[in-house]
Structures
1.
Amino acid sequence: MAQSLRPRRRFRQPSVIPGFGLTLGYTLTCLGVIVLLPLAALVTRASGLGLSGIWDVATDPRVASALRVSFGVSLLAALTASVFGFLIAWVLTRYTFPGRKIVDAVVDLPFALPTAVAGIALASLYAPNGLVGAQLAKFGIEAAYTPVGIYIAMVFIGLPFAVRTVQPLIVEIDREIEEASATLGATRLHTLVRVVLPPLIPAVLTGFALAFARGVGEYGSIIFIAGNLPYVSEIAPLLIVIKLSEFDYGGACAIATIMLGISFVTLLAINLIQAWSRRRFGYV
Amino acid sequence: MSKAIPHGDIGRPASVVTEGSRVRWLLIGTAIAFLALFLVLPLVTVFVQAFAKGWEAYLAAFTEQDAHAAIRLTLIVAAIAVPFNVVFGIMASWAIAKFEFAGKNLLVTLIDLPFSVSPVVSGLIYVLVFGAQGLIGPWLIEHDIQIIFAVPGIVLATIFVTFPFVARQLIPLMQEQGTAEEEAALTLGASGWHAFRTVTLPNIRWGLLYSVLLCNARAMGEFGAVSVVSGHIRGLTNTLPLHVEILYNEYNFVASFAVASLLAGLALVTLAVKSGLEWRYSADIAAGARGH
């Protein structure tokens, strides 16, 4: 860069475009007031509890079980969303079939549908007397008001993340490599597993992490179908709401801090995956 | 997102770079069945349940005073939150895309932060600042200002959860368009504002419209964050999603799904317009999928 010629690094490179001070100042002010200040309030409140205070809350049996349900079920749901998300992304980019564009648009439904609406719809579908719930009941599966219901809601909201992170990369695969692989005598399955799949792994992992993070934090689409039985189907976000309604701000903050911590670790993981992918494959 | 694929031979079954036709139809069938079961069926259920007792019962849900109040509040909240985030998004993307400065990546990450915070936590942090036991709670009480369990809190929580929508759409778009056109306008004597209005804005209009659409859908549909700060006071601090919850918990299913069908209709319109924009102006909405 031209900067290396200068004796000192500048904060900003010179430009004739006006408005830097105004727009950056406005951006930082909004960011500070809307996002950073309130988040700092949480961190302050949580640090007041101390590590031991947070640990006490986290090891409370009811809280521990809620965290286990949230993280455990979200892992399973993100796994499901990743597998089927990959399949859907593949079908949408590689095959032509009637209604493909509509199917493509449908994928974004969970982004657009308010979570409470999805929540009551899933609850009524999977209730023992609901359309799907009654069928599942024949096989002895109870979906609504159990962790299975939580799993279904988490798959619902996680799916678009899984599809949309992989899809653009499938579009960009260089098909000549596949042709080369086929020419060299590889079977189609062999080509898919050894040639097509490896460069897509970072995107699949990113989609998985996004779906997982979303599932852990999700509230609206889950609480209606979950039944919210303590120790069985109670999720961590709901417990925050319960603690708040009992004016137990400390408890609410402790759970929120644990959840924030996990989502930062997830974000970090995504960044590491992308950095690794950039080194390994030359793109994100 | 649904980019045209540059090769013309995809549909041909004999190609070596695709699967056999039986496998293909099996995969297509599985994908569609999965989407139908997990995504479409819940959507259909909303309308089926809403009309379960006929038109009259459906319409009765909207004659209630509380329903009117919820609709009004949802519109007010969106009318404040969406323009706020449009102004913020344009300001932020101008600063980030048109200039090179230290700490830019960190700034972009911080703007994205609300996406990775649970909706419930988003509500909680505002309670911690403005609530009765909050940071400035006592001061607010002294001056008789109510934010939590009132409309300002709902607006703030909604702004928080929709904060990144416009900015993250416009930043890559403006980065891709560079600064050459604006520089030309400035050289020709345009003021900064004039250059923005006549050069930048037309370049980003489809991307902007696209992000406003998504921002609005989220603003009107937000549940978790709003539920924490609202206090659920009927007729006063109930938005449409909260009204859906209350009716559902009262076993008033038809009314609950009727109100929900309104939100589902909004989601469908959003999806339709969004897809229309993507099909038509995909290059003008999003910068290349790979970024820079």
2.
Amino acid sequence: MSQMILDWSLFAAQLMLGVGMLATLYRMVRGPRAQDRILALDALYVVGLLLLVTLGIRTGSTIYFELAMLIGLLGFVGTVALAKFLMRGEVIE
Amino acid sequence: MKRLFPYPVLAAALLILWLVLQQSIGLGQILLGGAVAIVVSLAAAAVLPGRVRFRRLFSLLQLVVVAGIDIIRSNIAVLLILINPRAEPSAGFIKMELKLTNQFGLAVLACLLTATPGSAWLEYDGERNTVLIHVLDLIDKDEWIATVRHRYERLLLEIFE
Amino acid sequence: MIDELPLWLAILVSVCVVVGAGLTMAGCLGLVRFPDFYRRIHAPTMGTSMGGGLILLASAIFFSVTQQRLVVHELVIFLFVTVTTPVTLMLLARATLFRDRIEEARDGSADKDK
């Protein structure tokens, strides 16, 4: 019974996060400007991270945390580099 | 001792972070984490602009509570705007002057305002000490400025200056 | 590990996960719905503040109960995400202001508020 509640709610949550990912992808493709695309990419990273955390609850394994951390780190560094590039035209000054 | 631990709080926080990430409190992990904490805090000493001094821990606690409440409230507010298809939020820019000059205080204020949905810190002018804020649902400029002053800046002034 | 999940745990974790995912989805839909960049910048913070916080809280509760020890991995992720997202958003906003000002100077249509 309780396993069934958990399974269904995790399914619903993953579905919602998937819809959110599609929304960010739409904004990334449509633009219209570079900063909109980077903003959408940053949001996509965060939603992907959260999707991995829900996957971790579903499978009952803590191995997904490391992946989530890694996505968080890469997303941060990537977005900062892209924002720097927009401002100055180069990443490292 | 002072040369090895220029930032004791930072070093302790790093050690705790290491132990949490390793999920163990064995002697080996404590030694390894301690080594990492010392090296990283020495590296941070070269980068940080100055020492952080927390004046009043009670104000810090108060700030955490206030920020938590405001984040929940503004999440609900932005959600209501989003699910109402006819709502056209009247977004706008606010330029306000700050009394706060401490760099760490400004950093905390910037993160708080940006992390709250509905308001975003855009740009800080260090010479005139003014900041440009963008608000999603701007109704009354003066009310917003007063909110930032009384809810956040007052506490930050107590903590950092 | 324990064999049977208690009902209260399932319900608590379910509510947190569903509400958190809903808030995150709403934030992402805001990216699509809002008409300009400065308004869109407010949308993803819903996912990183409360949405993400609730999902990570659910995960922390779930693993703390099922593994019968305190699991606080999620706290690290939460702190990291809540601190880094404002930083990236501020950088992006400043880059956008910079680009807008260049374009406005070129077109001669200066918006005084910026």
